[in-house]
């Protein structure tokens, strides 16, 4: 008998059999795009995985004039649309009617204004009816799937209505979507506002990037494998590149994007979370507080980013996936002379013992050449003495690439001798894809995060000090860009790798960007 395999199977079975406790999920913004595209499909997948208890229920809250029946119909139609046409993340060949009905029959709807106290009085009454008594409402998870301007108002209204007060062993928790503030001062103000009502352990600041299996696996890769840790520092690694490239444009999100831009939208949250996973010190355990403390410690060690180490770009017309696309300034709800960046590249320095002198290069953008999110660790070259007769520039680099999406996996390039009588070196690669070893799970990236909120595991969520430390690092760039608008927008064609200035950012350090998608299997290159 294979005891390792047996133990692993038992552990997996135990984890899969663990249901969340009975609870009511209250979704503010129930008629919005986020709820339809991601939250409800994630809940359906949790039903399929048997992670939700019979005592689970949903109350949707929104100003839209809907009934419970018409809201359920909207959600059902969206799920069927995903089956027929495919969604951003949700993929299924069919919707199981039994599982969908299990979820749908637990849905109710409350029409109301988020800023009106009467809405919260009616919500309290509805929760009390479900709990059977006014003092026995049970566990409640409030999900703020709304615009940022409502976050603080909703939390304050919940507090005034007594809905955040925990009693009789029941909990109250609040999920807050990003963006959590739009700069350091607004993040501090929002933290102060909600912490005046809630305790830190009631707040779950969500970042869906951390719901991806490959992001979570970074910690396992680093800390469960002894072969990596000795090289995972300034002695073994010359620099790190983190890329989040999209082949979609701003499209119908112009009103939101004009106020946000690529830096605010992606860097202090998504990219910094990847940075934390790859660069944080080992926590003493996977206890939520231990992991989050190490993330905050890392962000606090980031030097404030100099504007000289930041590049911004905006796309012009071009071709993406063989289709012509228009420039950003012609997108709906975008100003014709917009100064908003759709691309950003940064050089980040970490002032601690492990990473002193190692640059971390981050880039993200819309309408780039290939859809790809990855982390590439470039290892230092071996001493050249043994290869004195070999042109140094032809020695293949040693690069470990962690593919977050698509084709989730690990790609390692290294040197090997080419067959023949002479010592000739060539580059080879080892490629690990999760789909080759594990049965793929239907996931939109929110399943783990929502489930963790139900069971009270805050490991993958940000604390107040973590959020503020991330904004503190990028604030000098925000200030500089606000004071000095760009003069060269648009400066990269849609379908290209980005602006030339981003190449120069690395060239001055003797480095070059890894081609976007270079580590992807050919079938996954978009």
**CATH architect. name of the largest domain:** 2-Layer Sandwich
SS elements, strand count: 18
Largest sheet: 8 strands, mixed
Can you identify the CATH superfamily of the largest domain?
Answer: Dihydrodipicolinate Reductase, domain 2
Gap between N and C termini:
44 Å
Average of per-residue pLDDT values: 87
**Helix-residue proportion:** 25-40%
Number of domains: 2
CATH class of the largest domain: Alpha Beta
Strand content: 15-25%
Task: Could you tell me the CATH topology label of the largest domain.
Answer: Dihydrodipicolinate Reductase, domain 2
Poorly predicted parts: 1-16
Strand line-up across the major sheet: 8-12-13-7-14-15-16-17
Radius of gyration: 24 Å
Q: What count of helical segments does DSSP give?
A: 14
What is the overall silhouette?
A: globular
What structural category do the secondary elements indicate?
alpha/beta
Characterise the protein shown here.
The chain has 526 residues and is of the alpha/beta class. The protein has 14 helices and 18 strands. An 8-stranded mixed β-sheet has the order 8-12-13-7-14-15-16-17, sandwiched between helices. Strands 3-2-1-4-5-6 form a 6-stranded parallel β-sheet, sandwiched between helices. Strands 9-18 form a two-stranded parallel sheet. A hairpin with a 3-residue loop joins strand 15 and strand 16. The chain starts with a helix and ends in a 19-residue tail after the last helix.
């Amino acid at each position: 008998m294979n005891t390792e395999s047996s133990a692993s199977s038992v552990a997996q079975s135990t984890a899969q059999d663990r249901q969340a406790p009975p609870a009511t999920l209250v979704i503010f913004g129930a008629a919005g795009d986020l709820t339809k595209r991601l939250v409800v499909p994630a809940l359906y997948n949790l039903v399929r995985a048997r992670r939700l208890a019979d005592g689970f229920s949903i109350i949707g809250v929104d100003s839209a004039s809907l009934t419970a029946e018409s809201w359920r119909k909207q959600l059902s139609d969206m799920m069927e649309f995903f089956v027929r046409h495919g969604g951003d993340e949700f993929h299924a060949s069919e919707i199981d009617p039994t599982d969908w009905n299990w979820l749908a029959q637990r849905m109710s709807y409350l029409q109301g204004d988020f800023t009106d106290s009467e809405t919260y009085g009616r919500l309290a009454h509805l929760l009390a009816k479900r709990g059977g008594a006014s003092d026995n409402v049970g566990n409640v998870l409030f999900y703020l799937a709304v615009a940022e301007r409502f976050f603080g108002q909703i939390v304050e209204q919940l507090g005034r209505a007594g809905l955040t007060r925990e009693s009789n062993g029941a909990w109250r928790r609040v999920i807050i979507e990003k963006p959590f503030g739009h700069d350091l001062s607004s993040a501090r103000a929002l933290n102060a506002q909600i912490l005046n009502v809630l305790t830190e352990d009631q707040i779950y600041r969500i970042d869906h990037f951390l719901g991806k299996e490959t992001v979570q696996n970074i910690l396992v890769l680093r800390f469960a494998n002894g072969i990596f840790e000795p090289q995972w520092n300034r002695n073994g690694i010359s620099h790190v590149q983190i890329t989040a490239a999209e082949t979609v444009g701003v499209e119908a999100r112009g009103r939101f994007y004009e106020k946000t831009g690529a830096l605010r939208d992606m860097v202090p949250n998504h990219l910094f979370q990847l940075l934390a996973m790859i660069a944080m010190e080992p926590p003493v355990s996977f206890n939520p507080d231990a992991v989050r403390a190490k993330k905050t410690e890392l962000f606090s060690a980031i030097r404030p980013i100099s504007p000289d180490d930041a590049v911004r770009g905006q796309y012009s017309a071009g071709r993406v996936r063989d289709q012509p696309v228009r420039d950003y300034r012609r997108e709906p709800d975008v100003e014709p002379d917009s100064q908003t960046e759709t691309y950003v590249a940064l050089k980040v320095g970490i002032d601690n013992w492990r990473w002193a002198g190692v640059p971390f290069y981050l880039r993200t953008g819309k309408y780039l050449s290939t859809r790809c999110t990855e982390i590439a660790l470039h290892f230092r070259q071996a001493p050249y003495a043994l290869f004195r007769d070999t042109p140094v520039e032809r020695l293949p680099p040693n690069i470990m690439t962690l593919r977050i999406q698509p084709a989730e996996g690990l790609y390692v390039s290294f040197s090997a001798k080419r067959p023949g009588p002479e010592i000739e070196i060539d580059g080879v690669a080892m490629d690990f894809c999760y789909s080759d070893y594990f049965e793929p799970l239907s996931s939109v990236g929110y399943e783990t995060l929502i489930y963790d909120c139900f069971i009270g595991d805050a490991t993958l969520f940000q604390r107040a000090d973590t959020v503020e430390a991330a904004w503190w690092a990028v604030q000098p760039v925000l200030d500089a860009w606000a004071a000095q608008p760009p003069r060269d927008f648009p400066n990269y064609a849609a379908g290209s790798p980005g602006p030339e200035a981003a190449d120069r950012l690395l060239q001055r350090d003797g480095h070059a960007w890894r081609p976007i998608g270079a580590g992807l299997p050919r079938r996954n290159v978009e």
